[in-house]
Amino acid sequence: MARRSEILIIADARVAPSVAAAILEGVRDVVSVAQAKLPVRLAQDEDVVSRIRSREDDIIASSEWLFIAAQDTASSTVKVNADKAFLLLETSVWEQKIYPYYVLVTSDPLRSDQYGFTPNWYRWTFGAAVSIKSFENQKDPSVEEHMRTLVMHAAGHMFGLLPEWRVKDVVDECGPHCANQCVMKHPRYVPGDWTELTRLRLKGKEPFCRSCAENLRECCRG
Description:
- This protein is of the alpha/beta class.
- The chain has helices spanning 17-34, 45-49, 63-69, 82-90, 143-158, 192-202, 210-221, and strands spanning 7-11, 40-42, 80-81, 101-106, 110-111, 121-124, 127-131, 170-172, 176-178.
- Helix 1 runs parallel beside helix 5 (143-158).
């Protein structure tokens, strides 16, 4: 795993504090299982401003600017282009030598250049993005619990799950996913599959199966 300094969670202004807190705990859950020594925190405006330098007429005053700048202007509805957001964060002039991992949280649908559809989550090698849009009306379990499950899935992929050397309990559905009852299972139906996984997690079932937990630790050690 490439060296990174911390995990920054960057949420747009419409993300409720309770949802942001649930996502924070979900990422911390993954870090704990991975046994990775990475601090996890919610980003402040200055975190984003310090990572993106002004270009010509661009004015960067807050983290909200990032989501506005990353909007997909080709779409008739507002969507956040995850690829563009990550490029803005990663390729800008930045004095520090060690970058963080990024977890982006948006209230709008996501757009990615890689997929031909709008995903609920998306990953880069150094980041993950999640959208609340498909879960904003969920009550049982709550939107907070759905997002905690979703971000655990996305962060698992961000850290390298499922690794290419794994051959057992793997299904190839939009990339390699776990075949067990695990947060790394591929969500065919939204929000139904996320609801099922969230209820299993809340009943006390470990979020990651034994194979995924072991792989997660191996990926983070490597």
